Amino acid sequence: MSLGPAGASLNPDQAENFEDMEKQFAVKAVQHMTTYWAILEKMKGSQLRLTKMDDEICEHFKTDFPEFDPTETIDEDKMKSKEGKERWRNFMMTYEKKIDDYNFGTMLRSNPRYEYGEKETIFAMRMQFYAIEILRNRQGLNDWIYEQAHA
Question: Which letter, b or e, does each residue of 68-102 get, where b requires 16 or more Cβ atoms within 10 Å of its Cβ?
């Protein structure tokens, strides 16, 4: 879809149906969220690989965000602040040509101790999801989902 050149004004009479686009995005985001949860119920997160580049993504994330504690609730305001956006943009651009849909919007649990829910879920880019969930999985923080499903 093209909206025209950057900075150009948008003519609503010529724009595609944004409501349909939003619905399509919501459907894809929910599908991604439910698929990931279903996988975590079938396999311990500590045994799961999300991409072919998990090792690289994890090491890069720990280098660029050494203060990130995967056991804690994500500070969404900090993540989406001007400085936070810049740090994440620099991190994500590394994967522009390496990871499909690296900048596609998805849902991310703000804390690994909770299921997806209205207050426990934030909107994030796919690379943010990968970086955070790979680290959580490596530390066994999502294994409880499998254990709960098989109790």
Answer: eebeeebeeeebeeeeeeeebeebbeebeeebeeb
Helix, strand, or coil here: 37?
A: helix
Query: For 1-19, what is each residue's pLDDT tens digit?
Result: 334 444 444 455 555 566 6
The pTM of this model reads 0.85
- Which pLDDT score is estimated for 15? 52
Question: 94 — phi, psi (to 5°)?
Answer: -60, -30
Please give the DSSP secondary-structure letter assigned to residue 96: T
Residues forming a β-bridge with 106 = 124
Cα separation, 45 vs 133, whole angstroms: 9
